[in-house]
Each structure stands twice: as structure tokens, then as C-alpha cells.
Write a structure and sequence with these properties.
Layout (H helix, E strand, L loop, with lengths): L16 H8 L4 H4 L4 E5 L3 E5 L3 E5 L3 E5 L4 E15 L2 E13 L1
Length: about 100
């Protein structure tokens, strides 16, 4: 008599406390991941939350420290309107975004 093997349950993905708390509170995972949150408003304005500092800034570009990456924004008339805590608001004619 042939006996079928019993299937073992799939291993559960291990999640940290922050991830489990975020799921329970229904907070988007990108907020808890430490990654920057970027919002574009056409090609005239960008909001970045999660910025740690301004590395370089000029009329045609802005380089921002976003933790594990550098965000370079290129365009014309680049203007940093505000930098409060970790949120940056930049306006101008935006032509290029580069994450490196």
C-alpha cells in the first residue's frame, strides 16, 4: 500500500515589528521602509518626503540625500521653496529625475 506524503505548510515570511504594526494600522509600506516618498505635480513641482539633506543646488539642478540613494532633479529655474524636517518642495520646469 502506497502512502502519500503529507504536505508541510509553506513557511511564513518573517516580518519585523514595524512591518506588522504598519499592516495592523494600515500604513502604506513605503512610509515604513525608509524609502523616500516622491510626488510629482506635472513637470512644475515635486514633493519629496524622506530627504536627509541637500547635497548640491543650483538654478538647473538639485541633488538630495534620500538615505540610501541620491535624487538628482534637473530642469530650468529650479527653486527649493521649503525644506521642513524631511519634506522638500521644489518648483521649476522639471526635465529629469535620477535616482542613484
Amino acid at each position: 500500500m502506497k502512502r502519500e506524503r503529507e504536505k508541510l505548510p509553506e513557511p511564513r515570511e518573517k516580518k519585523g515589528v514595524a512591518a506588522r504594526l504598519g499592516e495592523w494600522m494600515e500604513i502604506p509600506t513605503d512610509i515604513l521602509s525608509g524609502q523616500p516618498h516622491v510626488e510629482l505635480f506635472g513637470n512644475r513641482e515635486i514633493m519629496i518626503d524622506g530627504c536627509r539633506g541637500i547635497l548640491e543646488y543650483g538654478e538647473t539642478f538639485a541633488k538630495l540625500d534620500c538615505g540610501g540613494m541620491v535624487l538628482t532633479i534637473r530642469g530650468q529655474g529650479i527653486c527649493i521653496n521649503s525644506f521642513v524636517q524631511s519634506a522638500v518642495n521644489i518648483t521649476g520646469v522639471l526635465t529629469d529625475l535620477d535616482f542613484s
